[in-house]
Amino acid sequence: MKNETPNKYSYSVSHFLSPQIRLLLALEDKYANWYQQLTGTLWWAVELGRIDIHLNVPLLAQYLAQPRVGHLKQAFHIFAYLKTHPILVLYFHATCRRIPVYQ
Fold first, then answer.
1. CB 3.0-4.6 Å disulfide test: which of 26, 49, 76, 80 passes with 89?
2. Among candidate residues 99, 25, 102, the one with its CA nearest the CA of residue 66
3. What is the pLDDT of residues 92-102, one digit of tens each?
4. CA Rg, the chain, in Å?
């Protein structure tokens, strides 16, 4: 395993998602609409197998009604994370019809 130094997109959550984000300016209508579209795209990424962002997307989705500048920056950060980690996807083999259950 390579010893890699973490870059600023090593984690899917950045420092932008904090309680102080409510103090930032609300987005204009066109940017709020863009934020809503980006959040919907991230939901589809989760549905298609990107479970590494599964906890972050609902955090963003709860601010769909009145997003702030920091929320849009966080959405961009998640997209940058996805770009730097393109192969982290959960796959199921087509011949596996039954998933074993362990008790």
1. 49
2. 25
3. 666 766 655 55
4. 16
The first and second tokens of residue 42, run together, are 């991230």
Residues forming beta bridges with residue 3, ordered by sequence position: none
Alpha helices in the chain (DSSP H): 29-47, 56-61, 69-84
- Domain limits, the chain: 19-84
Instruction: Give CA–CA dist 46/57, Å, rounded.
Output: 8
Give the tens place of pLDDT for each residue, 34-53: 999 999 999 999 988 888 88
Looking at residue 90, its amino acid is L
Compute φ and ψ for 81, nearest 5 degrees: -60, -45
CA 20 from chain centre, in angstroms, equals 20
Q: Of 2, 5, 3, 10, which is closest to residue 84 (Cα–Cα)?
A: 10
What are the distances in angstroms from CA 50 to CA 67, 85, 90, 97?
23, 10, 7, 21
